[in-house]
Specification:
alpha/beta, Rossmann fold, N-(1-d-carboxylethyl)-l-norvaline Dehydrogenase, domain 2, 8-stranded mixed beta sheet, 15 helices, 8 strands
Length: about 325
């Protein structure tokens, strides 16, 4: 059965999901920039993202938020984390009370330390809260757009809504699993970007595969500690939104966060790196938010703190690595170490 879908955000992931959903559904694709929306409507291509792919006729671009949301039963939120509160504050007047919302945003709000599920709840009336679903997992937009096999998790406190979205979005190359641990799925999706920067730094320094594997494993431990302190289930971090997304983001050549780390490890400064990027590397903002959150929770996160110190110019990458390797020894099974 066809479902009217709106996608908010015409970046790479929003564009690929609009194309995915348009196989069987009518889709509106909202872009903040009127010129971008007009170019997409005219040329049937997104000039900034996945520009080699043609937009199906069932995707209708617009820069009018009211038009994008009119009579939409499924609304996919795919804007950068720092824009979610502002966009959803504007969108609330146009949302159908019965619409299901799917957030694909992976990050933590820098100013407040809030997860994206918390930002959405604060931005929208209570009628929308049970119908919020959070998509996460190893999913490069380019590969989804190219119809390469991808598996993701859809988490909702009311799992029936996740199952509904699962039915709408799943297809032979995009497999969705349902989940009920919203906190765990949100924390995993946000924090793996910080660890990906750390692994990129390691690879940029060319200090070996052993170091890379150690960082990924201990990084997963740090993600899990924060998640459990917030009420998540530890087993969630062994799934697609935890270990799965971590593996992809730390090792994949399409990973923006790993790319940032690579350049840091090669000696470039963060300001120079970001100036040359056209897409958002969420991990840079999330690093500072994650470290503040860990401090509030009383959770030790030495890898994340090392990344923060490098980003802030307090430590050189090689020095941060030495500090990690010479910390007080402890048990692998001790969640406080």
């Amino acid at each position: 059965m066809s479902v009217p879908v709106a996608v908010l955000g015409a970046g790479s992931f929003g564009t690929c999901l609009a194309m995915l959903a348009s196989r069987e559904h009518d889709v509106t694709l909202w872009a903040r920039d009127e010129a971008v929306a007009a170019a997409m409507a005219r040329e049937r291509r997104n000039p900034g993202y996945l520009s080699d792919l043609e937009l199906p006729e069932t995707v209708r671009p617009t820069a009018d938020l009211g038009e994008a949301l009119a009579d939409r039963e499924l609304v996919i939120v795919a804007v950068p984390s720092h824009g979610v509160r502002e966009v959803m504050g504007r969108a609330r007047a146009h949302l159908d009370p019965e619409a299901i919302l799917v957030s694909t945003v992976k990050g933590i709000e820098v100013e407040t330390g809030a997860r994206m599920d918390e930002v959405l709840r604060e931005s929208l009336p209570e009628v929308h809260h049970p119908k919020m679903v959070f998509l996460s997992g190893p999913s490069f937009a380019r590969e989804v757009a190219d119809r390469k096999p991808t598996s993701v998790t859809l988490a909702s406190e009311e799992e029936a809504y996740a199952i509904s979205v699962q039915t709408t979005l799943s297809c032979p190359w995009f497999r969705c699993y349902s989940h009920s641990d919203v906190v765990g799925v949100e924390v995993g999706g946000a924090l793996k970007n910080v660890i990906a920067i750390a692994v990129g730094i390691c690879d940029g320094l060319e200090i070996g595969m052993n170091a890379r594997a150690g960082l990924m494993t201990r990084g997963l431990n740090e993600m899990t500690r924060i998640g459990v302190a917030l009420g998540a289930r530890p087993t969630t971090f062994l799934g697609l939104s935890g270990m799965g997304d971590l593996l992809l983001t730390c090792t994949g050549s399409l990973s923006r966060n790993r790319s940032v780390g690579l350049e840091l490890g090669r000696g470039r400064k963060i300001e120079e790196i970001l100036e040359g990027m056209t897409q958002v590397a969420e991990g840079v903002r999330t690093t500072h938010a994650a470290c503040r959150l860990a401090g509030t929770l009383g959770v030790e996160v030495p890898i994340m703190q090392g990344v923060r110190a490098i980003l802030d110019g307090e430590l050189e990458p090689a020095d941060a690595g030495r500090l990690l390797m010479t910390r007080q020894l402890g048990s692998e099974h001790d969640f406080s170490e």
